[in-house]
Amino acid sequence: MKVGIYAKSISSGFTPNLLVLFKTLSNLKAHIWIHPQLMAVLKKSDNLPALNNLFILKNSDVPDNLDFLITIGGDGTFLGGLSAIKLKNIPLLGINTGRLGFLADISPNEIEATLISISKQEYKIEHRSILQAQLNPLQNIAFPYAINDLTVHKRDTSSMIVIHAYIDDVFLANYWADGLIISTPTGSTAYSMSAGGPIVSPDSNSLIITPIASHNLTVRPLVIPDHHKISLKIESRDSKFLLSLDSRSFVIEETLEVQVKTTKNKVSLIKLNNHSYYSTLRNKLMWGVDNRN
Predict the structure, then answer these.
(1) 46 included as an active-site residue
(2) What is the pLDDT of the chain when averaged over all its residues?
(3) Do the Cβ atoms of 17 and 107 come closer than 8 Å?
(4) In the predicted model, is pLDDT for residue 205 greater than 90?
(5) Taking the domain 130-264, which CATH number applies?
(6) DSSP assignment, residue 106?
(7) Where exactly are the structural domains of the chain?
(8) CATH assignment of 2-122+273-284, among 3.40.50.1100, 3.90.1170.40, 3.40.50.970, 3.40.50.10330
(9) CA dihedral of residues 209, 173, 170, 248 (deg, nearest 10)
(10) Of 75, 105, 178, 246, which one is the catalytic site residue?
(11) How far apart are CA 84 and CA 66, in angstroms?
(12) Is 111 helix (H, G, I), strand (E, B) or coil?
């Protein structure tokens, strides 16, 4: 078994769990690859265990032959792991040390049992949609993909921006707002939900268009099939706007049109047989919990 580990930082409180992680992988005779960013953290904290099957690459290129990549952190770290593997067909497993953890849904106390279950093939793979952004006229964006959402929003001004939205080149609406979110079903529980968008099941093959603080009071979030292409043209007093792909942001000239579509590639998520999307949803959002007592 060849396993990669990716993290941006490791808190001191997670150290015992980190040792459990390495010990369990060692017992399973796994070959472990550590992302250089995590390696730098481990060297500073003296938390690197002595293992014979431990490999640290000199660059950040994730090996193609990993069986899966473990991320340690919150959903933001999980999204960073997606950027690290790029579009390689490497399943992701998220250990959650953050707050909610819809993507990184393995708690620290589940680490040993989870890895043993994976070694016994007691898991399933969920395939999630990936968004791709393209600027017109053509301009390069570093890794123009997102699993949660693509967002256009205002930059250095308190004024709203105007977003002219088209679906397959057919005019949809002019949004007078702070921004507009194009979300996958995976991202429906992220920024889109905070802006009032609906929660959508990950296997629904759809896109959610959610305005941010819209001044058009009758405009509401819209769900469309994900085989459509969405085009956005921006007007801003600042002459620039921000384009965000998950946690990465770029300053874009307002003369550039943003085109959004789903890719043929999917990102693969490892899910234990006893975990379900709906139980995660219920537990993370505390549905049914009565706080009036």
Answers:
(1) no
(2) 89
(3) no
(4) yes
(5) 2.60.200.30
(6) B
(7) 2-122+273-284, 130-264
(8) 3.40.50.10330
(9) -40
(10) 75
(11) 13
(12) helix
Mean pLDDT of 255-281: 92
Distance CA 234, CA 136 (A): 12
Per the model's pLDDT, the better-predicted residue between 56 and 17 turns out to be 17
For residue range 208-228, list pLDDT tens digits in order. Answer: 999 999 998 899 999 999 999
Residues 221 and 192 sit within 8 Å (Cβ to Cβ): yes
CA 288 to chain centre: 27
Phi first, then psi, for residue 272 (nearest 5°) are -65, 155
Q: What's the token pair of residue 82? A: 């997606």
The CA radius of gyration of the chain, in Å to the nearest whole number, is: 20
Q: Mind listing the pLDDT tens digit for each residue in 54-102?
A: 666 555 678 888 999 999 999 999 998 888 888 899 999 999 987 778 8
Tokens, residue 92: 């992701």
Q: So what's the pLDDT on residue 244?
A: 96
Strands 92-96 and 248-253: unpaired
